[in-house]
């Protein structure tokens, strides 16, 4: 259940009230007893995640995890083979051998 902030427009008293979302807003001030209370717009509470592993991939199904793992290994294998073929080849003749004196 959320906590709501209230302010009395008559006396300026501000207070918090722990209420259900479906409850009607409070109208009567607990200090001056006038019907001038309004609910304030709050920023909401902060969320704190404690522990390890709060990632979007933590709750994936086992089939998703296994297919992602197989894709990852196949892409690393293809990257490895393409890097082997794109390696510069050594030339057997150097540019200084072709010089004429």
Measured on Cα atoms, how large is the radius of gyration? Answer: 35 Å
- Determine the fraction of residues in helical runs and give it as a percent range: 10-25%
Low-confidence stretches: none
Strand order of the largest sheet: 2-1-3
- Strand composition percent: 5-15%
Tell me the number of helical segments per DSSP (H or I, 4 or more residues long): 1
Helix-strand pattern: EEEH
Rounded mean pLDDT is 77
Secondary structure: number of strands: 3
Largest sheet descriptor: 3 strands, antiparallel
Distance between the termini: 94 Å
Characteristic terms for this protein:
101 residues, alpha+beta, three-stranded antiparallel sheet, 1 helix, 24% helix, rod-shaped
Give a short overview.
With about 100 residues, the protein is an alpha+beta fold.
List the SSEs and their pairings.
Layout: E1 3-8, E2 14-18, E3 37-39, H1 62-85
Antiparallel strand pairs: 1-2, 1-3
Overall description:
The chain is rod-shaped. The protein starts with a strand and ends in a 16-residue tail after the last helix. It has one helix at 62-85, and strands spanning 3-8, 14-18, 37-39. It is α+β, with helices and mostly antiparallel strands. A hairpin with a 5-residue loop joins strand 1 (3-8) and strand 2 (14-18). The protein has a three-stranded antiparallel sheet, with no helix packed on it. It has a domain at 3-39. The protein is built from one helix and three strands, in the order βββα.
